[in-house]
Amino acid sequence: MTILDGKGLSNKIKEEVKADVIELQTTKGITPGLAVVLVGADPASAAYVNMKSKACKQAGIYSIVHEMPETISQDKILEILAMMNRNPNIDGILVQLPLPKHVDTTAILEAIAPEKDVDGFHAYNTGRMTLGLDSFIPATPYGVMRLLEEYDINPEGKNVCVVGASNIVGKPMSTLLLNANATVTTCHIYTKNLKEHTLNADIICVGVGKVNLITEDMVKDGAIIIDIGINRLDNGKLVGDVDFENVSKKCSYITPVPGGVGPMTIAMLLVNTIKAARLREERERKLND
Asked: Does residue 119 have an active-site annotation?
């Protein structure tokens, strides 16, 4: 069994991003900029935003966090997003989810300019990704694909079971794997007999937020396990959706939690921000030609 070391790979990618930032600054006079919108005081969301800000700082990316009260109106958030869309120093905009119940998440995500949508949640980018066209790809599924590539795991021709069908992880994960010529089964809360699907899978990707959802008897020998789930136990320990101790005895590759997919998510967000900065430079050059 081989551990898929997302932490190690993410550190390597962050160094590459740091070099990209220096190159953009010295050759193009551009410092990539990322703006994060944080609504409310959810501790998990605040922790994620803090990690993203820290990673930006280490890479040399200009980063700003707009903290807003839980009670802020949807119109006010839209107003701030419009301001960020116009700001030439901001290349990427992301809104930390979930948003308060009184806010229409779709309306907020659709208000972000597609060329600044580094989270890859805008319908424009989702559509292009589905068609296999160049786009911003959601950071978590993007990180999984990069991790598979690093370990020379080619999904082509493999049976893959994606457990979870969220717009943020499950659906784009299934799409990317399908585009990589895998045979994909997407399972969700209404799926009957989950075990039947997972036992047939060469690769299992799971991200639903349920401790020990995937157990040893649900996994065939030699399967590849990608655990995207993050759960905090009562004792404070972080675990995924997979019974790591027992499943790891049967599989060929597995991601740990923490240290697997999580660090890759932040690394790929930085990669998307660099991409957005390069697109900005391209647009500016065309305007000046």
From this structure: yes
Residue count of the chain, please give it: 289
Q: Walk along the chain (289 residues) and give the pLDDT tens digit of each residue.
A: 999 999 999 999 999 999 999 999 999 999 999 999 999 988 888 889 999 999 999 999 999 999 999 999 999 999 999 999 999 999 999 999 999 999 999 999 999 999 999 999 999 999 999 999 999 999 999 999 999 999 999 999 999 999 999 999 999 999 999 999 999 999 999 999 999 999 999 999 999 999 999 999 999 999 999 999 999 999 989 999 999 999 999 999 999 999 999 999 999 999 999 999 999 999 888 888 7
Catalytic residue among 91, 96, 116, 171: 96
Q: Is 75 a catalytic residue?
A: no
Look up 58 and say whether it is catalytic: no
Which residue from 175, 211, 217 is spatially nearest to 196, judged by alpha carbons? 217
Give me the numbers of helices (H) and strands (E) for the chain, helices first please: 10, 11
